[in-house]
Amino acid sequence: QVQLVESGGGLVQPGGSLRLSCAVSSIIFRSFVMGWYRQVPGGQRDWVASIGTGGSTNYADSMKGRFTISRDNAKNTVYLQMNNLKPEDTAVYYCNAGIAVGGPGPYWGQGTLVTVSS
Asked: Within the chain, how many helices (H) and strands (E) appear?
């Protein structure tokens, strides 16, 4: 069974930074396309960023230049560095893992709350 555990969320002021981590309990982590999604209360879960098995990255337009996704295959962990945070970035952030590209995979973490507020 694949388990994903996010950490690193919290309260930050506008313009601040946070780094989210997602630890994956799977020996085939290297084969996973990893992604981050976010969801506000009452809203849909939106794609934020993805990183492929070879390290290629993609971002939603509103995150480009502010967010960076990365992975450490030796630690079975994917990261999301978030800079210049805005109040509209407030959401629960979810880690996702799968084999196929073009959409979310079948494995999700429990989510970590990011609140951007002064």
From this structure: 0, 11
Q: Specify the DSSP class assigned to residue 3.
A: -
Distance between CA atoms of 27 and 52, rounded to whole angstroms?
A: 16
User: What gap in Å lies between CA 16 and CA 45, rounded to an integer?
Assistant: 23
Tokens encoding 13 = 């002021």
Q: What is the largest distance, in Å, between two alpha-carbon atoms of the chain?
A: 41
How many C-beta atoms lie closer than 10 Å to residue 108's C-beta? 18
Q: What tens digit of pLDDT does each residue of 68-114 get?
A: 999 999 999 999 999 999 999 999 999 999 988 778 889 999 999 99
pLDDT for residue 24 is more than 90: yes
